[in-house]
UniProtKB/TrEMBL annotation:
Name of the protein in its database record: Tetratricopeptide repeat protein
Entries under InterPro entries matching the protein: TPR-like_helical_dom_sf (IPR011990), TPR_2 (IPR013105), TPR_rpt (IPR019734), Ycf3 (IPR050498)
Stretches forming TPR repeats: 87-120, 121-154, 155-188, 189-222
PANTHER family the record matches: TETRATRICOPEPTIDE REPEAT PROTEIN 6, UDP-N-ACETYLGLUCOSAMINE--PEPTIDE N-ACETYLGLUCOSAMINYLTRANSFERASE SPINDLY-RELATED
Region annotation (Disordered) ranges: 14-37, 213-232
Matching Pfam families: TPR_11, TPR_2, TPR_8
Highest taxon in the source lineage: Bacteria
Length: 232
């Protein structure tokens, strides 16, 4: 099975849900998709030694250091000591822990935050990202589902749910999520790319080729997937 070690720099949360989902999804779902597509369907050529290469991760405008995140945690600790039910402090601490790769503790803070605001889409989305990191794919699917329930226009949450399904080899089920993400943002290159990989994995080479060609038009980095999964 192929893993993309060059994705290690990706973040898990930004100040609001944007490009982080696809970065995490690329880190987790490509391995499963590559493993499946290494057994190519008819009309689809795959090379086991090649996997899609992600674009450079999109970071927050003001990138913080680990020391900054540790300071954020200390600030949140003080706030929570004075006010244990401070949603914003819990959310800030969860994000800081996630950036420090303390995903399990981040999930614990998201759990507490969601007990206070059980309809907060951002908290569900970010908890889903952490659960992807923890390889808790079924739970991530549930979280992304809640995120889109409370924010139906969150293309990243649809993409994240699709990526989690790919990780579980549920390629057919992932396709509608990528399709929804594309309907929200018709220029969403990663959604075309991963929908194309999903089509290739369920023996739909024509659809795979069309999606991967579109992805490549939008993002030249997707050409690697086009060559791998559509034999071009």
């Amino acid at each position: 099975m192929l893993f993309l070690t060059d994705c290690a720099r990706t973040t898990t949360e930004v100040e609001r849900p944007t490009s982080a989902a696809r970065n995490v999804a690329r880190e987790t779902s490509v391995a499963q998709a590559a493993d499946s597509a290494a057994r190519p369907a008819a009309g689809v050529t795959a090379t086991a030694s090649v996997a899609p290469t992600p674009p450079l991760p999109v970071e927050p405008a003001a990138r913080k250091s680990n020391a900054d995140y540790r300071a954020d945690i200390r600030t949140a600790d003080v706030a929570l000591k004075a006010k244990p039910r401070d949603f914003d402090a819990l959310l800030a601490r969860a994000k800081a822990k996630s950036h420090l790769k303390d995903y399990r503790e981040a999930v614990t803070d998201y759990n507490a935050a969601l007990r206070l605001k059980p309809t907060n889409a951002e908290a569900y989305y970010n908890r889903g990202l952490n659960r992807l990191k923890l390889k808790e794919y079924s739970a991530a699917i549930v979280d992304f589902g809640k995120a889109v329930k409370y924010n139906p226009q969150d293309k990243e949450a649809y993409f994240g749910r699709g990526a989690a399904k790919m990780q579980m080899f549920n390629f057919k089920s992932a396709i509608p999520d990528f399709t929804k993400a594309i309907s929200i943002d018709p220029s969403y290159a990663d959604a075309y790319e991963y929908r194309g990989i999903s089509y290739a994995s369920i023996n739909k080479p024509a659809e795979a080729k069309a999606d991967l060609e579109k992805a490549t038009q939008l993002n030249p980095e997707a050409e690697k997937s086009l060559r791998r999964y559509a034999g071009k």
